[in-house]
Amino acid sequence: MSKVWLLVTIAMMAIISVTKATSINYSDALAKSILFYEGQRSGLLPHSQRMKWRKNSALQDGHDINMDMVGGYYDAGDNVKFNFPMAFTTTMLAWSVLEFGDLMGSERKHALEAIRWGSDYFLKATNSPDKIVAQVGDPNKDHDCWERPEDMDTPRTTYYLTPQKPGSELSAEIAAALAASSIAFRKTDAQYSKLLLVRAYKVFDFANKYRGSYNNSVGDGACPFYCDISGYMDELIWGAAWLYKATKTAYYWDFVKSNVQSLGSFVEFGWESKNAGINILVSQWAMNDSSSASPFISNADNFICSLLPTSSTKSVSYTKGGLLFKQGASSNLQCTTALSFLLVVYARYMHAVKKTIHCSNEVADPTRLIKLAKSQVDYILGKNPQGMSYMVGYGAKFPQKIHHRGSTLPSMAMHPQHLGCRDGDQYFKSDKPNLNMLTGAVVGGPAGNDSFQDSRYNPGETEPTTYINAPFVGLLAYFNKPTLV
């Protein structure tokens, strides 16, 4: 009997050990996911800056066109300010606060600070009549160097849109960001909220009046880095939907309804395609108005069916470890976090009206959607075949050699001397962990077979981006205090 009890005890200890190793602290992950944005800040850093290894950078941005473009975010591991994904990031941070801000506790303050760092920048980008700044920094020159943002000596070219060089997708996404942010600040800073909304009107008008793709206007500054493949109508509809949510002005709702048929596939959502997000966002009010339901509710339902692992209409795959995987995505977790965010948001809307979804071979209730989203969040935070968190600084095991210039190179405090374009190569090639921890950064994530190569040479898996984290902020807030109401 003693041997049996010994084996039972060992087995129980193993189970307890695994449970501890994979237990999820959503509150800690939430705080870190927001802190990450301080590591991506460009410009003059405030005294409240918590990620201390970062210092002021790019303080002359906009100087080449006589505009103040200091501020904003670096999108990923490079030192360019790509306004298209930055605007989407700001929109999603605002949406996270609108849906889940009441569940964030003390972190809501920091989430609003993260939004404001983006919205302040977009006020600058749209401050000149008939000119909208599209991007700051020459990406081709920047990507040829491995240097700290504090040291940048590559061209800080300012790319901008005009009536003759339009960019409807970028302008409309900025309008969405400003409108969503205006709602987020409505209760805490009414004057700032109004300023954002007034600017959103003007920027949407610019986007709609002067139609064209920023691919052509920005040229090789946009492509191949952040090309818009799906066209600009989804952003125009997205921007109008957010303006309607912010104002309840019939003009914007009419715009959405009259143009929705121009959308392509409804299963995509991210910085490049807003289709699924439009249907989920609009469903909040369409569910309560039968005259407005078509085609938004059916599109949203079909989108959900396309994500369910056992659905016959599934359009995504799942790894053996259970991760939602989009074939061809260069940074898969951007898809996982964005689509999971929509799952939770729609589940809450469904719950409010006691709705279920009838897919071709199964019925899905709100709880089904929540469980699927939770499985994705938990996978990212450590419940996966690698037993590792894909958020830097969270858990006992996480990526150590992420593809990120500032994190890789010695801080200004450690090495105050200038590091030139190629001076960082030795740190990039090193087998040692990064010198600075970019706490809260969610990286691109594992491959389709659940393997992960922790290497700076593998940006698809180890590079963090602002738009991976943005929907994850909302997800973590929800699962920190899960409730369907």
Automatic annotation (TrEMBL):
Keywords: Carbohydrate metabolism, Cellulose degradation, Glycosidase, Hydrolase, Polysaccharide degradation, Signal. The active site is at H403. Its EC number is 3.2.1.4. Residues 1-21 form the signal peptide. The keyword Transmembrane does not apply. It is an enzyme of class 3 (hydrolase). Gene3D superfamilies: 1.50.10.10. GO terms for molecular function: cellulase activity. Residues 26-476 form the Glycoside hydrolase family domain. Coiled coil: none annotated. It catalyses: Endohydrolysis of (1->4)-beta-D-glucosidic linkages in cellulose, lichenin and cereal beta-D-glucans. The keyword Hydrolase applies. One of its GO terms (biological process) is cellulose catabolic process. InterPro entries: 6-hairpin_glycosidase_sf (IPR008928), 6hp_glycosidase-like_sf (IPR012341), Glyco_hydro_9 (IPR001701), Glyco_hydro_9_His_AS (IPR018221). PROSITE patterns: GH9_2 (PS00592). Belongs to the glycosyl hydrolase 9 (cellulase E) family. This is Endoglucanase. It comes from Psophocarpus tetragonolobus.
